[in-house]
Amino acid sequence: xKLAFLFFLVSLQVFGQKIDTRTFQQISDSIMAxxxxxxxxxxxxxxxxxxxxxxxxxxxxxxxIIRYKQGDSLVVIAENIEKKGVxxxxxxxxxxxxxxxxxxxxxxxxxxxxxxxxMKHVVIKDVQSNYEITPLxxxxxxxxxxxxxxxxxxxxxxxxxxxxxxxxxKNRSCIPFGKDYLFYADEGGKVFYHLSFNxxxxxxxxxxxxxxxxxEISYPKREPYLLPTDMMLFRKYGLPFQLxxxxxxxxxxxxxxxxxxxxxxxxVTLD
Length: 271
Description:
Shape: globular
Number of strands: 15
Number of helices: 6
Strand content: 35-45%
Radius of gyration: 19 Å
Helix content: 25-40%
Distance between the termini: 31 Å
Structural class: alpha+beta
Order of helices and strands: HHHEEEEEHEEEEEEHEHEEE
């Protein structure tokens, strides 16, 4: 997702005006697209790691992993720890639920891939040096999703970057909503805007939730609209339990956002 999503988030925080359900439905495409992209990047990583773990020879060679879009597909590459600048394995998928293609024929990394891997470290270093991240508690870990994207600014196409820092749980029956961060960086890797999402409010998957296939949470006033990070985490952690509905109350506007994973839609209701 391009800067449209950032502008949408900024407008919410800066203006804080009341937007009716029709207005929200008009901009929900940006939220859905961002959540879909996050989920695609996450599933690409998970499936690539699973494939590596099942291959004894590859487990010894595979090092750092990066992801990027190539046309309509997501490419996931693992660098060879024995030979820097060489891809030990490449994975590709178009949709998060597709079968993952797998190629373990070694090849040289492209200049773009080398630059992307280096830029990831530059952005992470800038975040670590200049921004505060809430310390992790027992059973938590940070999931970093680095996303390159192109944006036309004043007629010139520029390579920009997004870095998500998600707080996740080692307990797979606990959905770790909140305490997530988003950083936007320029072509030099310098962060020019950042956001933090929600206090930490994990939800344990109870028998009642499994029966209803639904999770209900309420956002504080600082988060008036449904967050793509929560949508991705609900989809990821809810998948093993076949959960399909995330219902979020906006305390700010006294409305509900209903995210349906089967239809992949967001409905807005007033009741």
